[in-house]
Amino acid sequence: MPTGKGWRRQFALRALLLILLSGGLPWGCATLGEDIEPPHISLVKITPLKSDDLESAIQLHLRLVNPNDRTFRIRGVTCKLDINGNTIAAGSSNTAVELPQLGTVVMPVTVYTSMTDFMWLMFRMMSSAPEKREALELTYALRGKLFLDDAPPGLDRLTFETQGDLIKLRSSPRPTS
Protein backbone atom coordinates (compact mmCIF):
# COMPACT_ATOMS: atom_id res chain seq x y z
CA MET A 1 0.00 0.00 0.00
CA PRO A 2 1.39 3.44 -0.93
CA THR A 3 2.30 5.76 1.89
CA GLY A 4 2.00 9.53 2.31
CA LYS A 5 -0.40 11.80 0.43
CA GLY A 6 -0.37 9.71 -2.78
CA TRP A 7 -2.47 6.85 -1.43
CA ARG A 8 -5.31 9.17 -0.44
CA ARG A 9 -5.46 10.61 -3.93
CA GLN A 10 -5.43 7.14 -5.54
CA PHE A 11 -8.15 5.98 -3.16
CA ALA A 12 -10.33 9.03 -3.93
CA LEU A 13 -9.90 8.58 -7.69
CA ARG A 14 -10.78 4.86 -7.50
CA ALA A 15 -13.82 5.60 -5.33
CA LEU A 16 -14.99 8.29 -7.76
CA LEU A 17 -14.50 5.92 -10.71
CA LEU A 18 -16.47 3.19 -8.95
CA ILE A 19 -19.34 5.60 -8.16
CA LEU A 20 -19.46 6.85 -11.75
CA LEU A 21 -19.42 3.35 -13.21
CA SER A 22 -22.08 2.01 -10.87
CA GLY A 23 -24.30 5.03 -11.48
CA GLY A 24 -23.79 4.91 -15.24
CA LEU A 25 -24.57 1.24 -15.75
CA PRO A 26 -28.36 1.48 -15.38
CA TRP A 27 -28.48 4.37 -17.90
CA GLY A 28 -26.26 2.51 -20.34
CA CYS A 29 -28.28 -0.67 -20.14
CA ALA A 30 -31.61 1.15 -20.42
CA THR A 31 -30.62 3.20 -23.44
CA LEU A 32 -28.83 0.41 -25.30
CA GLY A 33 -31.84 -1.87 -24.94
CA GLU A 34 -34.10 0.50 -26.86
CA ASP A 35 -33.99 0.42 -30.64
CA ILE A 36 -34.55 4.12 -31.37
CA GLU A 37 -34.60 5.29 -34.97
CA PRO A 38 -34.03 9.01 -35.55
CA PRO A 39 -36.99 10.99 -36.92
CA HIS A 40 -37.17 11.55 -40.66
CA ILE A 41 -36.95 15.25 -41.48
CA SER A 42 -37.91 16.99 -44.71
CA LEU A 43 -38.21 20.59 -45.85
CA VAL A 44 -41.83 21.35 -46.73
CA LYS A 45 -41.97 25.13 -47.08
CA ILE A 46 -39.75 28.20 -47.25
CA THR A 47 -41.20 31.58 -46.23
CA PRO A 48 -39.22 34.82 -46.68
CA LEU A 49 -39.27 37.07 -43.61
CA LYS A 50 -37.68 40.47 -42.97
CA SER A 51 -34.74 41.63 -45.01
CA ASP A 52 -32.13 44.22 -44.11
CA ASP A 53 -29.30 45.66 -46.17
CA LEU A 54 -26.90 42.76 -45.59
CA GLU A 55 -29.05 40.01 -44.06
CA SER A 56 -32.28 38.21 -44.78
CA ALA A 57 -34.38 36.02 -42.52
CA ILE A 58 -36.15 32.94 -43.86
CA GLN A 59 -38.55 30.64 -42.08
CA LEU A 60 -38.08 26.97 -42.89
CA HIS A 61 -40.92 24.58 -42.15
CA LEU A 62 -39.56 21.14 -41.29
CA ARG A 63 -41.73 18.04 -41.27
CA LEU A 64 -40.65 15.61 -38.58
CA VAL A 65 -41.88 12.04 -38.95
CA ASN A 66 -41.47 9.71 -35.97
CA PRO A 67 -40.99 6.03 -36.95
CA ASN A 68 -40.82 4.99 -33.26
CA ASP A 69 -43.51 3.83 -30.87
CA ARG A 70 -42.52 6.47 -28.31
CA THR A 71 -43.24 10.18 -28.20
CA PHE A 72 -40.38 12.69 -28.38
CA ARG A 73 -40.58 16.06 -26.64
CA ILE A 74 -38.34 18.37 -28.64
CA ARG A 75 -37.14 21.57 -26.99
CA GLY A 76 -35.37 23.08 -29.99
CA VAL A 77 -33.43 22.68 -33.21
CA THR A 78 -30.39 24.14 -34.96
CA CYS A 79 -29.81 23.80 -38.68
CA LYS A 80 -27.83 24.90 -41.73
CA LEU A 81 -29.18 25.13 -45.26
CA ASP A 82 -26.92 24.44 -48.24
CA ILE A 83 -27.94 25.22 -51.81
CA ASN A 84 -25.96 23.58 -54.60
CA GLY A 85 -23.27 22.62 -52.09
CA ASN A 86 -22.88 26.10 -50.57
CA THR A 87 -24.01 26.95 -47.03
CA ILE A 88 -26.21 30.01 -47.36
CA ALA A 89 -28.27 30.07 -44.16
CA ALA A 90 -28.09 28.96 -40.55
CA GLY A 91 -30.32 29.37 -37.54
CA SER A 92 -32.05 27.85 -34.56
CA SER A 93 -35.36 27.70 -32.77
CA ASN A 94 -36.29 27.12 -29.15
CA THR A 95 -39.90 26.34 -30.06
CA ALA A 96 -40.93 23.23 -28.16
CA VAL A 97 -42.95 20.62 -30.04
CA GLU A 98 -44.20 17.16 -29.22
CA LEU A 99 -43.57 14.55 -31.89
CA PRO A 100 -46.17 11.85 -31.26
CA GLN A 101 -45.36 8.18 -31.53
CA LEU A 102 -45.66 7.02 -35.14
CA GLY A 103 -46.82 10.56 -35.95
CA THR A 104 -45.75 13.78 -37.59
CA VAL A 105 -45.44 17.48 -36.81
CA VAL A 106 -44.28 20.59 -38.70
CA MET A 107 -41.68 22.68 -36.88
CA PRO A 108 -40.82 26.27 -37.91
CA VAL A 109 -37.17 27.37 -37.80
CA THR A 110 -35.89 30.85 -38.61
CA VAL A 111 -32.55 30.90 -40.44
CA TYR A 112 -30.48 33.88 -41.49
CA THR A 113 -28.55 34.40 -44.68
CA SER A 114 -25.93 36.95 -45.53
CA MET A 115 -26.77 38.85 -48.70
CA THR A 116 -23.14 38.52 -49.81
CA ASP A 117 -23.29 34.71 -49.55
CA PHE A 118 -26.53 34.72 -51.51
CA MET A 119 -25.10 37.03 -54.18
CA TRP A 120 -22.01 34.81 -54.56
CA LEU A 121 -24.26 31.80 -55.04
CA MET A 122 -26.22 33.61 -57.75
CA PHE A 123 -22.98 34.74 -59.41
CA ARG A 124 -21.64 31.16 -59.47
CA MET A 125 -24.88 29.85 -60.91
CA MET A 126 -25.02 32.53 -63.63
CA SER A 127 -21.36 32.12 -64.58
CA SER A 128 -21.70 28.38 -65.13
CA ALA A 129 -21.48 27.04 -68.67
CA PRO A 130 -24.46 28.00 -70.91
CA GLU A 131 -25.47 24.37 -71.45
CA LYS A 132 -25.78 23.92 -67.68
CA ARG A 133 -28.00 26.99 -67.31
CA GLU A 134 -30.78 25.37 -69.33
CA ALA A 135 -31.00 22.51 -66.85
CA LEU A 136 -31.07 24.69 -63.73
CA GLU A 137 -30.62 22.64 -60.58
CA LEU A 138 -31.37 23.90 -57.12
CA THR A 139 -30.47 21.10 -54.77
CA TYR A 140 -30.54 21.62 -51.04
CA ALA A 141 -29.05 19.89 -48.04
CA LEU A 142 -30.37 20.53 -44.57
CA ARG A 143 -28.37 19.40 -41.56
CA GLY A 144 -28.63 20.04 -37.87
CA LYS A 145 -29.55 18.80 -34.42
CA LEU A 146 -32.79 18.19 -32.56
CA PHE A 147 -32.61 18.76 -28.81
CA LEU A 148 -34.71 16.30 -26.80
CA ASP A 149 -36.33 17.29 -23.53
CA ASP A 150 -36.73 13.87 -21.95
CA ALA A 151 -33.35 12.21 -22.50
CA PRO A 152 -30.33 11.83 -20.22
CA PRO A 153 -27.38 14.17 -20.75
CA GLY A 154 -25.24 13.14 -23.68
CA LEU A 155 -28.16 11.39 -25.34
CA ASP A 156 -30.36 14.48 -25.65
CA ARG A 157 -29.34 15.40 -29.22
CA LEU A 158 -30.24 13.78 -32.51
CA THR A 159 -28.33 14.88 -35.59
CA PHE A 160 -30.02 14.90 -38.97
CA GLU A 161 -29.21 15.48 -42.60
CA THR A 162 -31.62 15.52 -45.49
CA GLN A 163 -31.46 16.65 -49.08
CA GLY A 164 -33.72 17.33 -52.00
CA ASP A 165 -34.53 19.49 -54.99
CA LEU A 166 -35.96 22.98 -54.43
CA ILE A 167 -37.55 23.07 -57.90
CA LYS A 168 -39.46 19.85 -57.18
CA LEU A 169 -40.38 21.20 -53.73
CA ARG A 170 -41.81 24.36 -55.32
CA SER A 171 -43.74 22.46 -58.00
CA SER A 172 -45.15 19.77 -55.73
CA PRO A 173 -48.92 19.81 -55.32
CA ARG A 174 -50.18 21.67 -52.25
CA PRO A 175 -53.01 20.33 -50.13
CA THR A 176 -56.15 22.40 -50.10
CA SER A 177 -57.52 23.43 -46.73
Number of strands: 8
Query: Could you say which overall geometry the principal axes of the C-alpha atoms support?
Result: globular
**Overall residue-averaged pLDDT value:** 78
Total DSSP helices: 4
- What separation lies between the terminal Cα atoms? 78 Å
CATH superfamily of the largest domain: Immunoglobulins
Report the biggest beta sheet as strand number plus sense, adding barrel if it closes: 8 strands, antiparallel
Secondary structural class = alpha+beta
CATH architecture level-2 label of the largest domain: Sandwich
Strand content: 35-45%
Overall domain count: 2
Low-confidence stretches: 16-33
Q: Please write the string of helix (H) and strand (E) elements.
A: HEEEEEEHHEEH
CATH topology term of the largest domain: Immunoglobulin-like
Percent helix, as a range, is: 25-40%
Radius of gyration: 23 Å
CATH class of the largest domain: Mainly Beta
